[in-house]
Amino acid sequence: MDRSTRQQRRKATRERASRGPRGRQVPRGWIVGVVAAAVVAVGALIALGQVPPAAPVSTAAAAGKVKGDLAAPVTVEVWADFQCPACRLFAFGPERQLEETLVRDGIAKVRWRDLAFLGQESVWAAAAANCAEEQGQFWRYHDELYAEQAGENRGAFSKANLKRFAAELGLDQAQFNACLDGDRHVGQVRAETEAGRQQGVRATPTLFVNGEKLEGVPSFERLERLIMTHAAAARDSERMP
Amino acid sequence: MKPQVVLLPVVTARGVDWTSWRAGACGALALLGLVLSGYLVWVHQSGTFVLCAGTGDCAIVQSSRFANVAGVPVALLGAGLYAAILALALLQVRASGTTADVAGLGVFGLALAGTLYSAYLTYLELFVIGAVCPWCVASAVLVTAICGLAAWDLVAAGDVEDRGGTCAQA
Fold first, then answer.
1. Which residues contact A206 (CB under 8 A, 6 or more apart)?
2. How many angstroms separate the CA atoms of B93 and B103, rounded?
3. Residue in B closest to A148 by C-alpha
């Protein structure tokens, strides 16, 4: 190896050393910028995620805890718990589709039944929904509860939060708070839950389509078929002399 | 004179290239992440229950209100993230010079954002929702690994004199 080659290598080594052990081709400023952008982007995502999703707006006519035409030939009885994630799936999925089709068309109606079996906050939430029902707002409150669902018995449905939901929906706060604090509907919720158990409801959601039991979240298509079958049967029985 | 290997050689189609090795690994992990998040997007869209290692926790997490950000499913955000990382990693492998550097930096930035957001989602699962979805944990591990590899690549870039990555002898 000649002398000039050795000198070139020493020069290259010095240049490498001058860049330090982490000498980069990518400018340090770019890296800092990318890290800052990543942090800002994640912060924005987290902030966006804090905004509760708007519950899908129900279009069906409602009377108390029944949605749809009371004279509809098919009744879909929904036993559910506001803390149950599968119930939320059903409410914002097949049930909403049902409201926009068969309920709207007067073929079926949906009747809510409380099976508040997942803990204290289930009972409070169900009682609060009944308090909202006193003001004719059961279904709006029902949607709000599912939109705010976050874990079981972790404070999402504390009484303070339940009152806040009512305020956000524009309910009469004095009336709602008195109802909730006075546990006006707790006994009714517990009694209905017990009645559900007596009927053999062991999980939520459980549906009864004109009495035919359906456990779990059915697809809309399956539910529609079942309702149409019962609607046809009801029609046939009406025609019978 | 006894030959001394300065850089451990990793042989790729383009010769010996450390950057390509790391970028290729990032791409492979991103592809895995894309498949995983694609499955979760499908589950979300179809309304079917997610396979969840025998627990119901995935359905709880997937149906929680945190599963969407401004109406966009988090799984879809993940799929987009992995697709972007995959594209940039492929660009990094194929390109050279500044283009490769910028692509590598892009992989790092996206993976860092993914890692930070995954950490937040894991916190939500543990302390707010009270259910842990193994698919989400797997995704968090993948994106963290990509972030680590991309950071390693950035740090090591200065040690490789030529981005072509030849194996030098002293």
1. A78, A79, A115, A196, A213, A214, A215, A216
2. 9
3. B65
Alpha-helical segments (H) within chain B: 18-46, 57-62, 74-94, 97-124, 134-157
Q: How far is B93 from chain A (nearest CA, A)?
A: 16
Q: Which residue of B has its CA nearest to A9?
A: B170
Whether the ω angle into residue A205 lies within 30 degrees of 0, i.e. cis, is yes
Q: Which residues of A touch B104 (CB under 8 A)?
A: 26
- Residue type, position A239, single letter: R
Minimal CA separation from A234 to chain B, in Å: 30
The minimal CB distance from A150 to the residues B68, B101, B129 is found for B129
The closest of A109, A129, A201 to A169, measured between CA atoms, is A129
Residue with tokens 């809510």, as numbered in its chain: A112
What number is the average pLDDT over the span A7-26? Answer: 49
Distance in angstroms (rounded) separating the CA atoms of residues A31 and A33: 5
**Which helix (H) or strand (E) is B66 found in, with range?**
none
C-alpha closest to that of B115 among B143, B87, B76: B143
* Each residue's pLDDT tens digit, A35-89: 999 999 999 988 887 766 555 445 555 557 899 888 889 999 999 999 998 898 8
This model of the complex carries an ipTM of: 0.72
CB pairs under 8 A between A and B: 96
- Torsion angle of C-alpha atoms B32, B35, B39, B45, degrees rounded to 10: 130
